[in-house]
Amino acid sequence: MHRQSLTDKAYNQIKGWIIDFRLKPGSHLSIQDLAEALAISRTPVREALSRLEQEYLVERSPMKGFSVKAMDLQEIEDLFEVRSVIELLAVRQATKRMNPKIRKQLEEGLKTTATWIRKGEKSRSLQLEQNFHMKILEASGNVPLMEIGRGILLRIWSIQRFNIITSDTLIEAHDQHLEILRSLCTDDPRQAEATMRRHMKATTRVLIARLRDHNDILYEAIKLDPQKCSQAQ
Hints:
With 233 residues, this protein is mainly α. It contains 11 helices and 3 strands. Helix 5 packs antiparallel against helix 8 (170-184).
């Protein structure tokens, strides 16, 4: 296999492990161990980690090597604030620019999500719910916005995924997505923006409350810096 293909393989797999929370924030990333797990040489793994470093999913320290990027509470709050601004703009523009193909994809995605929720397939449901936000960015037709938005979403997926997996908020989030889609179909940008705003506020409020609770499993999993958390409060 061509080295670039091996680098892509390593990049996609390691990124997937980070997003799925199999590699947790702060975890050391041994190039040798990853190479053995992926059955490839060290060079493409190192190149993949360098790419992930550029996307702020991985960080490199002198003498220590690579690790999954850890975040403090302030950084998480900032990311969600930026996310809200991006998605509010995306939904406004999507109201005016969304084509029938993407609208159908959004409708079918939410129908499939409802099926997985009824079957108790939380992980599959969550993946489709996350895709919903990616599709809103695509529906905006704004390429720079899509590029920036996807980068922000990738940085928070692991946290948000673990948040929903360990809570009972999936059905509520799905209902809010249905409401957002209905708003998009009204061709009223203000209504669509208001609906998305309510969803963003509800999502962020639950997450931040859990991250402030030192007894919550989410707080422990993210390995937040207690000193920075107390300062943020």
